[in-house]
Amino acid sequence: MILGAHTQHHLDSLVTAWQRLRAQPLASAFSILVIGIALSLPTGLYLLISNLDRASSSLSEHTEMTVFLKPKIETAAALGLAEALRNEPGIRKLRFVSREDALLELQRSGLDDVLTSLSSNPLPHALVIEPTQVHPEQIRRLGQQLRQRPEVDTIASAEAWAHRLAALLDFGVGLTWMLGTVLALSLAAITGNTIRLQIYARRDEIEISRLIGATDRFIRRPFLYFGALQGLLGGLAALILSGLAILWLNQSVAELASTYGSSFRLAHLDAPISLLLLACGALLGLAGAWLSVAYTLRDFD
Amino acid sequence: MIELIDVTKRYPGGHVTLANVNLHIQLGEMVFITGRSGAGKSTLLKLIGSIEKPTSGHIKISDKDISRLPRTAVPYFRLNIGMIFQDHKLLYDRSVLDNVLLPLHLREIHGAEATRRARAALEKVGLADRERSRPITLSGGEQQRLCIARAIVGRPRLILADEPTANLDDDYAHEIMNILQALNEGGDTILIATHDQDLIARYGKRCLVLADGALS
Ligand SMILES: Nc1ncnc2c1ncn2[C@@H]1O[C@H](COP(=O)(O)OP(=O)(O)OP(=O)(O)O)[C@@H](O)[C@H]1O
Ligand SMILES: [Mg+2]
Fold it and tell me: Could you give the ipTM of this predicted complex?
């Protein structure tokens, strides 16, 4: 195959970068591991959140919410509301619990002494709703919609719990971004430092190449490939590390889930996110290399 | 044409190495530069090769003032020159072949074509069977020949040879000079710094003598 001279130099640079990585296996493995660990932290946090999200979805499948109507709402109005809501898109099942039924239920539960001392039934009508969507955020939104109805007094359910979980997940997402940014910078710094040492180790070679006509771009290229390659392998290390962590955690998760009659397992990153992680590793390595080369080569002039 | 106009070179912290040097060399000429050790022969070649910049004065090659080249243009200018360094300046952690391939890669010549040309250059200097060796395992004379192969492989039209025969016995010195002379007959401009008076006498070319920072 005949390649353009340009492509050929890129290929040569890639091969050179790979050879330089292999020439110092211990140092390279160490750098890659450090990068891998740095990337594992936000990856792990991301995995925690996405799995928690999934778990909360599967757990809230049987979530019911009880909508208490205002005490002054009469039976006819309550039934009307029940009919109206039955066809709402977010609601899968709806059961009307009249204040009389509720009272009967309470009496059966052994509170009849207290209740008989009251002159009238203090309980409101209620609607027990099973939402179609099980995601905490969607449950929260459904609750908000219902609360806007004038007949509705309060809503008791997983709604508050779902709200809290959603807020927690939001916080987790924010934390992941923050941690990700900090560690991305440290990854670029680690790569930058490795490359700086390399440039100094190859000082003679760089100076000689310049004497016979090497451009900055020519000199820079193998180092940039080295940075990108090291970052890519660091990303791969992070994938493997977090995969191992999940394998290990899944043993206890399986046990816990089985006590709930669930077959829930932690899931690893899906293919697009894995590719994104690798791309981030490579790009950050490239960025670190670029900065390092730009600053270090200036010292040689 | 190579032109030096009132060129003065003074290294930082040092004394004046070249003082108001004026020089004209025609394209296609072969010129010897001689003088005692420390006279400034290497300095003169480095100035023409844009490796050093003059403290004052102008250096023009084909009417282009190379003493005022912007930093980014210098590499492209150097590609037109084959420099044989007095201290060889070889890449010691690469093979002999890789050393000769480097100038070709800089000229965007790769692959089989590059290998063919590099081998031809090594053949010329008698190092064909050492292409896999490291330069550090070569003798002083072999390293010098490798340096010559690297300088000529890119077919530059101007060759600056700093003591190209210093470490060579008569036979090899003669062969190297034959290579340079053949290039010169092909139209290349060749400048040779040497303190070997016999060599200068044998070739009967123009000879410049450097003494006390001045040419004569
Ligand atoms: N990089 C440098 N920094 C400071 N001084 C230098 C430098 N290079 C050369 N010199 C000085 O410039 C003068 C001329 O040096 P140059 O190498 O040009 O001499 P030369 O004629 O090539 O000598 P030789 O025959 O020993 O190679 C010397 O006095 C040397 O000390
Ligand atoms: Mg010299």
Answer: 0.90
